[in-house]
Amino acid sequence: MRTNYRMNSGVRFQMLSDDQLEEMFWGVLHLLEHTGLDVKHEEARDILEKAGAWVDGERVRIPSYLVKESLRMAPRSFTLYARDGNPKHDIRIGPGRAHFGPGPTCPNFIDVETLDRRPYVRSDVPIVARVVDALPDIDFCESLGTVSDVHHDLGALYEFASMFPNTSKPIVAWSYDQHDSAGIHQIAVAEAGGQRAFEQRPNYVHYCEPLSPLVSTFEALEKLIFAAKHRIPLIFTPCPIAGGTGPVTAAGIVTQGAAESWMGLCVAQALQPGLPFFMGGVYSVMDMNAMILAYGAPELPLFMAGITELAHYAGLPLWQTGGCTDSKCFDGQAVIEGSMSVFFSALSGGDLCHDVGYTESAMTGSVFQLCAMDEAIGYARRITRGIDVNDDTLAVNVIHDVGPNGHYLKEKHTRRHFKSEFWYPNLLDRQDFESWEMTGGLTLKDRTVARVRDILATHSPSPIKPETEKVIEKVLAQAEERVKEK
Amino acid sequence: MSESLERISTAILEGDEEKAPKLVARALRKQVSAKDILENALLVGMGEVGVRFKAGDMFVPEVLMSAEAMRASMELLRPELIREGVQLFGKILMGTVKGDLHDIGKNLVNMMCEGAGFEVIDLGFNAAPEKFLDAIKEHQPQIVGMSAMLTTTMRAMGYTIKAIEEAGLRDQVKIMVGGAPVDAEFAKRIGADGYGSNAPAGAELAKQFVGAA
Amino acid sequence: MSDILEQVSTAIIEGDLDEIVDLTEDALDEELGAEEILNKGLMAGMDHVGVEFKAGNMFVPEVLRSARAMQMSMEILNPLLAESGVQMLGKVLLGTVKGDLHDIGKNLVAMMCEGAGFVVKDLGKDIAPEGFLEAVKEHDPDVLGMSALLTTTMRSMESTIKALEEAGVRDKVKVMIGGAPVTQAFADQIGADGYASNAASAADLAKQLVS
Of A38, A331, A360, C96, which residue is the least packed, with the fewest Cβ within 10 Å? Predict the structure, then answer.
């Protein structure tokens, strides 16, 4: 029997001390109480005022006690469910778990057949969703693009309608307005078997984005209010750019971003106490020469580690960013930037890490980058899983039995553990030179392209219910009717 | 394939070293010929193991379990095969050359070769040329395999081949070499008959030497 | 080049807000013409800034400081230039389109255009087609620049161009557009005169459009 013995089986990574986190936490509360935000939605202002906030025109200031009350109401741990009941596709949000998925709304896409960059179209959505469904280390789905070949007000709705049947992994859905939000909700609820069943087993998360610096926009709040009223788990995720729309310093941008998120938190918890709420973001630097939001910068995972620790200190799950690149093609830069940020995201443990598969600074989505990052995530997860130390893993007896100059290949101990102790790559090549040459001398890019095409040729996601298919048809027909005149 | 042969082949595939020889003994009792058991059960199972290993669906410890099951079955079967006059794959003499104490690679090749149906005589590691000579005279193998891990010790392969030539035994055996620093170019230069870049390739090469591939 | 012009140009390059006004006055005291100070001092400095920026040796905050120095000097020179009838580079009217509150990109373009020597009138964000139209009538700009970050809001650029056509002022102004989802193809499709993929090239484009 072990006694008075502390175990660390995984990798423990912490950047900020409790003192630093407490200082940042109070920095956020100070901002919300003394500076406040512009809240561009009347109903939201009313909700906040009734809850105890001070409203002055559009400017809303929130007393600290109210923010702390809202933080207390939001859960740190809950489950996002696979629509088909497959427990392997569920996402359990809670301490010590990081999950990964693609991002939304790139204008362009790398064509799966020609490998050319071109506008993202409706038929790309099922491709992304099926690849997400098949990849072992991608946990949730977004579409990697904005559909360009449907009515421009309906892109988000068509996107969800095409993603939903093609993966049973939980989806993160964005929308243009609350018409979209309602259509998406209708589809998800139909599959779940009614609103009550959906509330118990939510199969998607609603994404809204406030504006930096310090503005809660009408659209973001309109969607937030819809989600809160229907008890849809919510992401409220600003995208401040250090040196542009946020302070240039890491501590400053984290503090501002948290204030922007927590304004949404207060509206959501006032409307629907206990609503699962992710604070968020994409926080990165404005490259002061290229003038882009740098998705491959080391500051991105650094900021993410900071905001992750602040979120967890405050008791909230985090929506974070990683696996993305500023590179224009599948090259060493794409893999360096993507892999480094994925590893850092896995270490810091932000709960949902999105934008995996972004290239060209979020201008082009690539399932190939996504597939390569799946490999990097598997690699990172093996490391973060850490080292188990017990009598069996210590293997003193096995070492004794094998003795000098023996070998372990035929030991039961080896056979029992080799699959769980080792991670096996799907894409990384470890053959000897002759074998590699004989199998075509393929590069990582060749193998990634082949794997994606193989998945698309062979993988079929579990189907949605026939009645959900009918709901999708109806929702799309109604939407087309609505925009006919526009 | 009859059900009893199929069960043997499955036991090989699953690496069940207890069940496989039992099933072989049972089949022999039921008057199934040893040749039939070898060709239509054991080799079929090992063939599937090879396919799955190459596809990345099976891993070394699992292949070794299958090879172990094969070796245990062959122990039973070998006398029967000889009685039936079946041509066996033959014997392989294996060793890590003089000065080299690394023999995990050689051990892997041994197990793969046994799995392929060969009888393997293992000289262990740090085997001097004289030791190879004595063993060739004693065991009359069809194939000699040499392994080296170091660039310093791989030269001993050349000396060993020279010793075999000088003893007038070179024509009796096929010689294969392998190990991390070894390549096909080196094998050719020292006058070996072949080179395997990894353990399964070593077993494949041995099969080619005896015309069984 | 005279010593004082060299100093003006250096003050622009270094973004020396403390010295630029005095140096401009010094140059005028030395009886140099406003046009000469503009061309051989300010513009020479800004050209250098442009080259260094493109080479990756200068960064946005530094360029913006140079542009600010240029503006401070221009406040002194403008009345004199007008007096002597010197043609300025021109006026650029800028705004983020209706429904879109993202204006960091547009702000960058405004600063880059000012640095290039344009007079910039910034309408701000969430500007409807009518807003652009009225501003074009009021300010009579040489270039109208529109920015959008969202695929939904970029459609409003087309409406603005239509509104300009219907009001009969389309020929009086060059239209340039930009923003993350905007492409050259979209610019061609809606009948804009040009598209720029970043703020520095937007300033270059504005120069081309007025030349």
Answer: A331
Helix residue ranges, H only, A230-355: 250-271, 299-314, 332-348
At B113-132, the pLDDT tens digits run 988 889 999 999 899 999 99
How many whole angstroms separate alpha carbon B144 and alpha carbon B187? Answer: 13
What pLDDT score does B1 carry? 58
The pTM for the full model equals 0.87
Give φ, ψ of A394 to 5 degrees.
Answer: -65, -35
B103 with A405: Cβ contact below 8 A = yes
The count of other CB atoms within 10 Å of the CB of residue B159 is 14
Touch between C and A (at least 3 CB pairs under 8 Å): yes
- The CATH code that applies to domain C3-83 is 1.10.1240.10
CB contact under 8 A, A405 and B201: no
**Statement to judge: residues B52 and B133 lie in one domain:** no
Q: Which pLDDT band holds residue C1 (cuts at 50, 70, 90)?
A: low
In terms of domains, do B131 and B46 share one?
no
For residues B107 and B202, membership in a common domain is answered with yes
pLDDT at A129: 98
Identify all chain A residues contacting C106, using CB atoms and an 8 Å cutoff.
none
Query: What is the average pLDDT across A263-282?
Result: 96
Q: Is the pLDDT of residue C179 over 80?
A: yes
* Closest Cα in chain A, distance from residue B108 (Å): 8
- Based on the fold, state whether residues B95 and B185 are members of the same structural domain: yes
Three-state DSSP at A358 gives: strand
Q: Could you tell me if B34 and B117 are in contact, meaning their C-beta atoms sit under 8 angstroms apart?
A: no
Distance from CA of C78 to the nearest CA of A (A): 30
* Sequence ranges of the domains in chain C: 3-83, 91-210
Q: Do A245 and C104 touch (CB under 8 A)?
A: yes
CATH number of the domain at B41, please: 1.10.1240.10
Class of domain C91-210: alpha beta
Q: Across the interface, which of C58, C101, C198 has its CB nearest the CB of A217? A: C101
Q: How far apart are CA A209 and CA A220, in angstroms?
A: 6
Whether B24 contacts chain A with CB within 8 A? no
Q: What are phi and psi of A183, to 5 degrees?
A: -65, -45
CA C205, CA C211: separation in Å to the nearest integer? 10
CATH superfamily entry for domain A78-385: Trimethylamine methyltransferase-like (3.20.20.480)
- What tens digit of pLDDT does each residue of A203-224 get? 999 999 999 999 999 999 999 9
Is the domain of B57 the same as that of B103? Answer: no
Chain A: closest CA distance from residue B11 (Å): 17
Q: Do B193 and B130 belong together in one domain?
A: yes
How many structural domains does chain B have? 2
Average pLDDT, integer, range B187-198: 93
Give CA separation, C104 vs A93, C15, C110, C149, C204, in Å. Answer: 34, 21, 10, 10, 19
What's the CATH code of the domain at B134?
3.40.50.280
Residue B59: give the domain boundaries.
Answer: 3-83
Chain A residues near residue C65 by CB distance under 8 angstroms: none
Average pLDDT, chain C: 91
Q: Does A405 touch chain B if contact means CB atoms closer than 8 Å? A: yes
Consecutive H or E run containing B87? none
Judged by average pLDDT, the poorest of A235-244, B130-139, B183-192, B204-213 is B204-213
Question: Considering CB atoms only, which of A153, A292, A363 is closest to C152?
Answer: A153
User: Which has the closest alpha carbon to C164: C199, C204, C205, C128?
Assistant: C128
Say which amino acid occupies C186: F
Question: What was the ipTM of the complex prediction?
Answer: 0.77
pLDDT grade, residue B213 (50/70/90)?
A: low
Of A445, A315, A313, A431, nearest in space to A367 by CA = A445
| Least confident stretch, A324-328, A415-419, A459-463, C142-146 | A415-419
Q: Which of B83, B106, B128 is the last residue of a domain?
A: B83
